[in-house]
Amino acid sequence: MERLWLVVLVIFVMALSVQSQLKTGFYSSSCSKAEAVVRSTVETYFKKDPSIAAGLLRLHFHDCFVQGCDGSVLIAGSSAERNALPNLGLRGFEVIDDAKSQIETLCPGVVSCADILALAACDSVVLSDGPSWSVPTGRRDGRISLSSQAANLPSPLDSIAVQKKKFSDKGLDDHDLVTLVGAHTIGQTHCQFIRYRLYNFTTTGNADPTINQSFLSQLRALCPQNGDGTKPVPLDKDSQTDFDTSFFKNVRDGNGVLESDQRLWDDAATRDVVKKYAGTIRGLFGFRFDIEFRQAMVKMSSIEVKTGIEGEIRKVCSKFN
């Protein structure tokens, strides 16, 4: 009996040790310059194109929702995750590859691609005048990347019930949902993803009635009915390059660009969070969003992580070892 208990205790301690390996400063002794290299690399690309910040943030989000935060979205290949329909618009792969190449020269086989992506997402928010946070590291890279597993990624067409279910399935609550969708304060979509809301919503031939009428005119001018579907549309009409709370004011006022964003106002629980962030007291609610976004990002970036002896540390982010 004592021997059995000893085995159980050893297994429990091993489980704890694996779990505890995700921590801030994980590479402080094994590759002390890793975080600085990621930061400088993201800065270099950001100076050329500030919109890359939203791309990197979205890349991390899409990675975490399939197979957990394990860099599986970075794998290239016809059947790989990044070639799934919801991932075809992802960008920023070259930033991660560049940072990885530099880090491999300094510390070969030490820093995971999954961690580089998590760090780059944080750096992107900071460069967009958003909050900074200490990114827990110690993730290992996954060995599976299948486009077929990306079907449950959140979609712009999702109802609020579907959005809540998809986030709940990953251990994220309604508050996390609204806070993380607030990342749409930077970035853009394209006319092809919103045109149905402007001209033929639910095949009625009319516009989505939740769109503010004056904003509807702006969107129609930007996206004519038979115009270029690839034309970019800012997700935050007021400050698309600044990480702020204007996105929530837009949702409150019927100026949400994506249908899924505007649906946050339809549900009592998510509406309360939108109201909180869209408050009228200047500064106070922006400060609260900054704090809660940090917390939500740390929570999201811990989804189903691989640590300890799980997975691998890739030599090149776009292919398995």
UniProtKB/TrEMBL annotation:
Cystine connections: 31-107, 64-69, 113-317, 191-223
The protein's Enzyme Commission number: 1.11.1.7
Localization of this protein: Secreted
EC category name: oxidoreductase
Active site, per annotation: 62 (proton acceptor)
Residues that bind Ca(2+) 1: 63, 66, 68, 70, 72, 81
GO biological-process terms attached to the record: defense response to fungus; hydrogen peroxide catabolic process; response to oxidative stress
Named cofactor requirement(s): heme b; Ca(2+)
GO CC terms of this entry: extracellular region
Binding-site residues, heme b: 184
Catalytic activity: 2 a phenolic donor + H2O2 = 2 a phenolic radical donor + 2 H2O
Residues annotated as binding Ca(2+) 2: 185, 236, 244
Signal sequence annotation: 1-20
Pfam families in the cross-refs: peroxidase
Residue span, Plant heme peroxidase family profile domain: 21-321
Textual note on the cofactor: Binds 1 heme b (iron(II)-protoporphyrin IX) group per subunit.
Annotated positions binding substrate: 154
Keywords: Calcium, Disulfide bond, Heme, Hydrogen peroxide, Iron, Metal-binding, Oxidoreductase, Peroxidase, Secreted, Signal
InterPro entries noted in UniProt: Haem_peroxidase, Haem_peroxidase_sf, Peroxidase_pln, Peroxidases_AS, Peroxidases_heam-ligand_BS, Secretory_peroxidase
Site features described as Transition state stabilizer, chain residue numbers: 58
Function: Removal of H(2)O(2), oxidation of toxic reductants, biosynthesis and degradation of lignin, suberization, auxin catabolism, response to environmental stresses such as wounding, pathogen attack and oxidative stress. These functions might be dependent on each isozyme/isoform in each plant tissue.
Family membership noted in the UniProt record: Belongs to the peroxidase family. Ascorbate peroxidase subfamily. Belongs to the peroxidase family. Classical plant (class III) peroxidase subfamily.
Protein name: Peroxidase
Species in which this protein is naturally found: Dovyalis caffra
